[in-house]
Amino acid sequence: MDYNSNPHLPAPNPDDYRFEDWIHTAHISNDPFGVNAFSGYNTNIDFTSDLNTSSAMESFSSPPWFCQLSAENSGEAIQSLTISTAFQESSDDPDRPTPDIILISSDSVVFYVAQAALLSASDNSFGGLLPVTSEYNIERVRYLPKVQSSELNVMLHIIYAANCARFCPSLQVIIRAIDLLPEYGTPPNTWITTTNPIYDLLLLHVPIYPLDIYSLCGRHDIYELAIAVSPHLLSFDLSSLTDEDAESMGSLYLIRLFRLHRSRVEALVTSLMPAPDLHDPTRDCGFESQQKILLSAWTMAVAYLSQCAKPNITMSDIRSVFDSMTTHITCEDCLKGRDDRVNKIVLNWTLVKVSPRRSQSVSHSNLNF
Questions:
Q1: Which uninterrupted H or E stretch holds 341?
Q2: Is the pTM of this model over 0.85?
Q3: Are strands 109-113 and 141-143 parallel, antiparallel or unpaired?
Q4: 131 prior amide bond cis, ω within 30
Q5: Phi, psi values for residue 229, rounded to 5°
Q6: Which single residue of 88, 196, 233, 241 has CA 20 to 30 Å from 324?
Q7: Under a CB-based contact definition with an 8 Å cutoff, are residues 248 and 218 in contact?
Q8: Are 361 and 353 in contact (CB under 8 A)?
């Protein structure tokens, strides 16, 4: 199933794959890798060269990306490469490790990166592509045929814990990038935390696309982000969930969402009773009058809320229901008792959780929140 074709998100934008502001074009000379094609990576600026030159291809076995690029270009010399703006061979950030390898995306965009940074973030040697031990520039290149430049840009920003907001990646691109991380041994739930800038970038999309981000959390068990998303799903109609939605978020997070909705409604209904205490009888309002008027109106309000309450019902809506059901009451003492009781209900409602707790057991018969 393609989780990135989710109907809740807008249709894919072709601009997501164009050479935008995170990349720029560099012209390539006809000399492969400069004068010394086999020098160490300290001369990797000479990477801007004709990748199809026969002398480079004959010296040693060609990496897969050379073969593919050659086939795609039908033997014609590549005149330019597109180089990442954020991941070049030199960086303005003194804390960023010095690049020693090159990654090339499926749309032929070059990213200069430090393999130590990738290896430290990966538990499978970055999809088996690393480490690179050769001293030859031409062998210090890795081609990622499944990853677009827009996605690789986001992936590397996550691994480097850098902010990619200035490139304005769409939510679709961000989700695709995160879904690709496990393939390269980088668990999203380890890296998408409040300390990583991608967390705040995702939060910006939550008000509009809460279900898509919650589903992302479910696929990768990003619990911390799911907690932040959950309040935005309280108004979501669970009956509109599709099979694709359920599969996308997984059974555990689906159950958590249903139980969150149910537990909030149950908590509200439980708090509605008992009815207000009866006040001391007065000349105008005795016990019988209170039971007939106040308690009857209260019971009607409780019945209405029990049937119609939603997980996202507001405090003002709760007050409005009780006010509308008791408009005919004129006794000040009865109204004071009503208001005191409603205030307690509203206070209790503010304390009801708006996000699920992490389950202690993953068994289908006993999932606790």
A1: helix 332-351
A2: no
A3: unpaired
A4: yes
A5: -80, -35
A6: 233
A7: yes
A8: no
**What DSSP letter does each residue of 191-239 carry, written as one string?**
HSSTTSHHHHHHHHHTTT-HHHHHHHHHHHT-HHHHHHHGGGGTTS-GG
Q: What is the C-alpha separation between 158 and 100, in angstroms, rounded?
A: 19
pLDDT in tens, the chain (369 residues): 555 555 566 655 544 444 444 455 444 333 333 333 333 323 333 443 433 333 333 333 334 444 444 444 444 444 467 899 999 988 778 888 999 999 999 999 999 999 999 999 999 999 999 999 888 877 899 999 999 999 999 999 999 999 999 999 999 999 999 999 999 999 999 999 999 999 999 999 999 999 999 999 999 999 999 999 999 999 999 999 999 999 999 999 999 999 999 999 999 999 999 999 989 998 889 988 888 899 999 999 999 999 999 999 999 999 999 999 999 999 999 999 999 999 999 999 999 999 887 754 444 444 443
Report which secondary-structure segment, H or E, holds 59: helix 54-59
Instruction: Give burial (CB, 10 Å; 0-12/13-18/19+) of 296.
Output: middle
Return contacts of 161-164, CB within 8 angstroms, 24+ apart: 161/191, 161/195, 161/196, 161/197, 162/86, 162/197, 163/197, 163/201, 164/22, 164/86, 164/197, 164/198, 164/201
Contact 169, 198 (CB under 8 A): no
The CA-based angle 208-242-212, given to 5 degrees, is 30
CA distance 306 to 110: 60
Instruction: Output the six-digit token pair for 190.
Output: 């380890």
